[in-house]
Write a structure and sequence with these properties.
Order of helices and strands of chain B: HHHH
Number of helices of chain B: 4
Shape of chain A: globular
Distance between the termini of chain B: 49 Å
Strand order of the largest sheet of chain A: 1-3
Largest interface: A-B, 96 and 83 residues
Number of helices of chain A: 12
Largest sheet of chain B: none
Helix content of chain A: over 70%
Structural class of chain A: mainly alpha
Order of helices and strands of chain A: HHHHHHHHEHHEHHEE
Distance between the termini of chain A: 48 Å
Number of strands of chain A: 4
Oligomer: heterodimer
């Protein structure tokens, strides 16, 4: 029934995706990437995947777009003093070489073959995983299948996922220089932004708490709640709020690893208590899932906000110490 | 069923576009962008296949995989971007040394490239 809508949405996705990859101007490419992410959220809704839509809008489009913009700002701010040839690099699209065009043709034909193969194979896709999940859902401690898979049946993957997040932020912390270089930055306290932030932060906290709680029986969960909360912290940092959590102090770093350690502590505790790896005791899975999810939410929020703050373009004169090394907000 | 086939095809197209961009583009940040588009293509294929057999109750396992994938993609992108910054700080260029050597012509002069 909604096939024309799906066709139109797919066309939009392909065009914005193409423009995001091959656009001449890098800034335009990033903005189009953010638009691509938001269109993708609509596609997830069409595919009956509301949790993915929430995560894509917040993390995929929002945070990745913000990180890309930060990096562009950094590159541009350092390029001002350099030769024009460097500026050419951000504007250059290398589709002129014959090898590049041949590569494009090969990629497109490979894609067509892939699509045909997928379409012929998917008709015979077995259903057994879904049936397994639904038959064991009542034992999982939650009533929403995706949360049950994430936190119970495939809890090991989620455990490693939070580990990857921690690794990423540790990588950023170790790569970021304590640079003494300062650039003349704009010191603006945008009154609209700070007023809006002050207005929206209580709602963000409530919405994050709701998303966390609703994950047990409806779309939601730790990652979506963490992403919303992290966005709130990013807003606080952008609007020059006096609220600061220094990443160089213990409390900031504790927040970063808190989720991973709670999960790890549960894994050890379960093993010591005679259960298998990450197995919940019968009938009490719900309580443990909630505790782990709360810890995960706090950590994910801190890590995502930390990723953004650590990617800031550089030190600004006069804006206090908002963007100095090791400091987040 | 037709609706899901549309998304499977779109996913493949996005994957291919991202791959082509990743290989063809020289600027490192564009490579990160292309990688993200590739990832989105993969996620779309996974979610479409989950919906194919599910109808109103899609298969939850690919959904969990895609959620994990989105988070891992943002972690890798953030780390990649920090590496790009360090490459730029060390070498002053935002392209890798090998790719940079090809640039011995003026891109806007319309010349064929000398390789």
């Amino acid at each position: 029934m909604l096939l024309p809508f799906d066709l139109l949405l797919s066309l939009l996705l392909i065009t914005t995706g193409w423009a995001a990859v091959f656009s001449r101007d890098l800034f335009r490419a990033v903005i189009l990437f953010i638009i691509f992410g938001l269109l993708l959220s609509i596609a997830w809704i069409r595919l009956e995947a509301p949790d993915i839509a929430l995560a894509e809008a917040a993390i995929g489009a929002g945070l990745t777009g913000a990180l890309l913009l930060n990096t562009i700002a950094f590159l541009r701010s350092r390029e001002v003093a350099k030769a024009a040839s460097v500026l050419h690099q951000t504007h250059h699209v290398a589709l002129r070489r014959i090898t590049d065009q041949v590569l494009l043709v090969i990629s497109i034909s490979t894609g067509i073959i892939m699509a045909f193969l997928l379409l012929s194979v998917v008709k015979s896709k077995p259903d057994d995983l879904k049936i397994l999940v639904e038959s064991h859902l009542h034992e999982s401690g939650v009533t929403y299948p995706v949360t049950a898979v994430l936190l119970n049946f495939r809890g090991y993957d989620t455990f490693l996922e939070i580990g990857v997040l921690v690794l990423a932020v540790i990588g950023l912390l170790s790569l970021k220089r304590t640079n003494s270089e300062v650039i003349a930055g704009l010191e603006h306290r945008d009154s609209i932004l700070s007023g809006f932030t002050r207005f929206i932060i209580p709602f963000i906290i409530i919405i994050a708490g709701y998303l966390l709680w609703s994950g047990t029986k409806a779309p939601g969960g730790a990652f979506q709640a963490g992403a919303v909360l992290g966005a709130g912290v990013v807003l606080l940092s952008l609007s020059g709020s006096p609220v600061r959590i220094k990443l160089s102090r213990a409390i900031g770093r504790l927040l970063l690893v808190f989720g991973f350690f709670v999960f790890l502590a549960y894994a050890f505790g379960a093993l010591l208590g005679g259960l298998r790896l990450l197995e919940y005791p019968a009938g009490q899975a719900g309580i443990f899932i909630i505790i782990i999810e709360i810890a995960l939410t706090l950590s994910i929020a801190s890590i995502l906000a930390g990723l953004f703050v650590l990617s800031s373009p550089g030190d600004f004169i006069g804006s206090g110490s908002s963007y100095e090394n090791g400091e987040g907000s | 069923m037709n609706q899901v086939a549309v998304y499977i095809i779109t996913g493949c197209v996005m994957f291919v576009m991202g791959f082509a961009g990743l290989v063809i583009q020289k600027h490192l940040l564009r490579k990160v962008l292309a990688l993200n588009i590739m990832g989105s293509g993969v996620f779309m294929v996974l979610t479409a296949v989950a919906h194919w057999t599910g109808g109103s109750r899609p298969d939850p396992v690919p959904h969990a995989l895609v959620l994990t994938g989105i988070v891992v993609a943002v972690s890798a992108s953030a780390f990649g971007m920090m590496l790009i910054r360090r490459v730029f700080e060390e070498t002053g260029k935002s392209e890798l040394p090998g790719d940079d050597e090809d640039r011995i012509y003026d891109p806007d002069s319309g010349d064929k490239e000398i390789q």
